[in-house]
Each structure stands twice: as structure tokens, then as C-alpha cells.
Q: What sequence folds into this?
């Protein structure tokens, strides 16, 4: 792929990141502090669609592998799902006037389900297509690095600037609705750009295998089981930290107005460190680079427990360190999936990118659901509700849940990475086979 085409294609990750971070940082806060929903109910609302749609990711992956159209089996989902995703994002932050809390709960439950279905179909196909665009391990890592760069920009806007945009548009439900409309247009635009710069890859015929048997074959791969667990843990960590950070900065540090600058520093750390992670991953086994980045992130989280407003320099340093750790996790887990897909295609003689991406996405979905449910329950457990007085017990509880819980999950992640069976040597051997043309990347079941 030419450089310009890679860059335009990579903008799709901006849409994904903008959508994910705007919701993960502000949707719980919007439901509890703007709408007035109880924290446990809000956590249940965010977690319930993930549990109800638990089989969705592998089904989307299987569909992505099997659909045939003149736009290609992956690209067609970018075309069809982008407008639905954009509309669904807007409705997540739009409260119909005059509705009571019970009506709003079920309204948002339907919206969340519709959004999740369309976004899953879109992202599974987009991610699977990424893994198939090049047989080169280095070029795939470069493409993923570009995607993560746009992802950091999306995170920067979604996490740091969202509250600024909301306030500029009038705050409250009006401000959130305006922000959602603006973001919806951006999300739609970047995914359509990604669609426009990719070509339909010629398909070759292969023996048809049932969806169930194909999924069972993928699940038996040792490397896949590790990847599933890795995405489960990272999904939980990101959901817990993102949802609690606005509460931590506002209630523990008493610096609600500083939330945007803190998030900008986090994203600056992520953006600046991204070339470093890309460079390191091309020279050192990705497992070890990933473990180092996860350890860096865990250290930054544990430091949050001891932070006070008396030392702002330490806060800025922790924000930059956390950004670098976040960048490593986001980049390396995606890069490792493309390696697994390439290695698997050599072993079986055809690409199962959709199935692998969908089944791994199931781990991420489960992690996000468990994280959302945990956040709601933990906030209720430590006595938080909208308008509650800030007490020492509350601030101590917030310190614990934002540092110790995700820090423990990061420790489990590092242990998994040390045992991950797909080494750099095996990936290099698979790359040689793909370059030789002995194994087709794109097949039609």
C-alpha cells in the first residue's frame, strides 16, 4: 500500500477511538450526574447489552469471512454500518424530553444494543481487513502504528476535549446532544474514507467449513486462547480506569476543571511514545515489549493512590507515564493479532481473519461488560451517588478502585504475556511463506 493510502485507511481508528473514549469517559457520568440515574442502574445499563450480545463478535467474524459482494467481504460492512453507527452514537447522548428514568433506561438499552450490533460488524471487518492488507510483519506493524496514532488523536478529543465542547455548546443535556451530533458526523466520515481507499481483494475458492466447526478450530489454537485472555483483561482495565478517572480528578483531587489538561497530557504521552513502541516491537519480541508497557501503566495507576494536589508536577509526570503505557497496550495487542492471523493463514492455507478477530473481540466485549458492571457496583459500594457530600471514606474508596483493581489486572496481563506461545521466530517464518506466495491471504469459504 502507498503511504497516503495507509494514512487515509488508518483514519478509521480515529472514529473507533473517538466513539469509544467519549462514551467510556463520559457516558456513565452523563447518566448519573446529568440525567440523575443511580450508579448501579447506570452500570447495569452499560453492561447489559454486552452480556445480551455475548455471541455477537464471533458471529460477526464468521459473517465477515463468508459474505460475498462486489465491494468485497470486509468492505461492504464499512459501507453499510457506518451510518447506523453514527446515528447510534448520537442517540446514546440524546435524552428525549419529558421521559422518566424508567422509560429512559429502556430507551437507552435499545439504543445500546443497536449501536453495539452495528459497531461490532463494522470493527470486526475493519480489523480483519487490516491484517490482510500486507504479508509483511513490519508493514503490518507500521499500518497498526498509524492507526494507533489516529486512535490517540481520537482519544485526545474524546477524553480531554469532550467536556470542553459540551460546555461550549451550553452544557447539560443540550451540550451533550450537540457534542454527540458533531462526533457522529466525524465517525461516519472517517469510516467512509477507509472504505473509499481500499480495493476489493480477489477471492479464491476453498472448502466450506461450518461456522461452528471453524470457531471450534480457532478456539483450540493455544495462541488464540492467550489473546482472548489478554483482550479480556485489557478491556476490563481500560473500562474501569476510563470511567473512574473523571470521578477521581473531580472528587479526590478536587480539580474538576483540570480534567481536560490532565487528559491532554495523557494523550501527549501516548502520541510521543508511539514511534518508540513501533521501533521496539520491530526489533524485540512483541511479548516482552508489551509486558514492559503494561508494567509502566500499572506503576502509573498505583501512583494515583498516593497523589495529592500539593504536588502537581508529580500529577503531570504520572499522566504522561500513563499515556505511554496506554499507547503500548493499545498498539501491541492489535499488532499481535495481525501476527496471529498471518501465522494461522500459513498453517491452514487460508485466511480466518474474521473468525479470529470476532472471537478475540468477544474477549474485549466481555472485559468491557465486566468493567462497566464492576464500576457501577464499586461506586455504589463506596457510597457514591449524584450530589453526595465528599467524605474521607469516599475519596479513599475512589483511590483504591482506580489504582489497586486495575493494577492487579495488569499484573495478571504480564504473567500471560510471559507465557504467550507465538514467538518472533515463528512469525518471521510465516512471513517468508506469505511473501513467497505459497499461501493465499484472501479466500472464499
A:
Amino acid at each position: 500500500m502507498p503511504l497516503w493510502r495507509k494514512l487515509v485507511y488508518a483514519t478509521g481508528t480515529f472514529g473507533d477511538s473517538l466513539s469509544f473514549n467519549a462514551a467510556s469517559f463520559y457516558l456513565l457520568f452523563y447518566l448519573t450526574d446529568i440525567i440523575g440515574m443511580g450508579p448501579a442502574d447506570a452500570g447495569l445499563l452499560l453492561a447489559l447489552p454486552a452480556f445480551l450480545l455475548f455471541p455477537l463478535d464471533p458471529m460477526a467474524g464468521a459473517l465477515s469471512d463468508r459474505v460475498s459482494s462486489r465491494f468485497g467481504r470486509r468492505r461492504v460492512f464499512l459501507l453499510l454500518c457506518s451510518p447506523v453507527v453514527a446515528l447510534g452514537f448520537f442517540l446514546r447522548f440524546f435524552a428525549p424530553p419529558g421521559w422518566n428514568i424508567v422509560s429512559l433506561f429502556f430507551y437507552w438499552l435499545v439504543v445500546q444494543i443497536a449501536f453495539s450490533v452495528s459497531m461490532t460488524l463494522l470493527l470486526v471487518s475493519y480489523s480483519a481487513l487490516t491484517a490482510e492488507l500486507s504479508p509483511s510483519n513490519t508493514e503490518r506493524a507500521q499500518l497498526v502504528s498509524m492507526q494507533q496514532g489516529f486512535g490517540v488523536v481520537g482519544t485526545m478529543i474524546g477524553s480531554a476535549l469532550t467536556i470542553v465542547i459540551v460546555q461550549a455548546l451550553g452544557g447539560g443535556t443540550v451540550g451533550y446532544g450537540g457534542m454527540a451530533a458533531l462526533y457522529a458526523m466525524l465517525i461516519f466520515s472517517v469510516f467512509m474514507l477507509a472504505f473509499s481507499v481500499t480495493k476489493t481483494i480477489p477471492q479464491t475458492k476453498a472448502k466450506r467449513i461450518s461456522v461452528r466447526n471453524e470457531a471450534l478450530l480457532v478456539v483450540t489454537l493455544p495462541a488464540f486462547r492467550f489473546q482472548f485472555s489478554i483482550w479480556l483483561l485489557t478491556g476490563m482495565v481500560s473500562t474501569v480506569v476510563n470511567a473512574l478517572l473523571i470521578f477521581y480528578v473531580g472528587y479526590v483531587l478536587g480539580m474538576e476543571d483540570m480534567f481536560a489538561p490532565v487528559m491532554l497530557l495523557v494523550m501527549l504521552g501516548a502520541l510521543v511514545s508511539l514511534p518508540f513502541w513501533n521501533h521496539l516491537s520491530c526489533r524485540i519480541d512483541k511479548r516482552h515489549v508489551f509486558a514492559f508497557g503494561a508494567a509502566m501503566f500499572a506503576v502509573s495507576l498505583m501512583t494515583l493512590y498516593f497523589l495529592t494536589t500539593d504536588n502537581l508536577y508529580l500529577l503531570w509526570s504520572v499522566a504522561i507515564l500513563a499515556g505511554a503505557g496506554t499507547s503500548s497496550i493499545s498498539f501491541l495487542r492489535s499488532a499481535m493479532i495481525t501476527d496471529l492471523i498471518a501465522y494461522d493463514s500459513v498453517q491452514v492455507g487460508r485466511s480466518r481473519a474474521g473468525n479470529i478477530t470476532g472471537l478475540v473481540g468477544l474477549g474485549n466485549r466481555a472485559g468491557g461488560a465486566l468493567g462497566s458492571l464492576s464500576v457501577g457496583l464499586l461506586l455504589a459500594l463506596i457510597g457514591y451517588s449524584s450530589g453526595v457530600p465528599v467524605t474521607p471514606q469516599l475519596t479513599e474508596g475512589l483511590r483504591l478502585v482506580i489504582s489497586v483493581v486495575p493494577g492487579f489486572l495488569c499484573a495478571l496481563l504480564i504473567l500471560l504475556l510471559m507465557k504467550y506461545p507465538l514467538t518472533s521466530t515463528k512469525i518471521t517464518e510465516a512471513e517468508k511463506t506469505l511473501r513467497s506466495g505459497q499461501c493465499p491471504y484472501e479466500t472464499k469459504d
Observations:
- The chain has one domain: 3-193+210-439.
- The chain has a mean pLDDT of 84.
- Strands lie at 204-205, 443-444.
- The domain at 3-193+210-439 is CATH 1.20.1250.20 (Growth Hormone; Chain: A;).
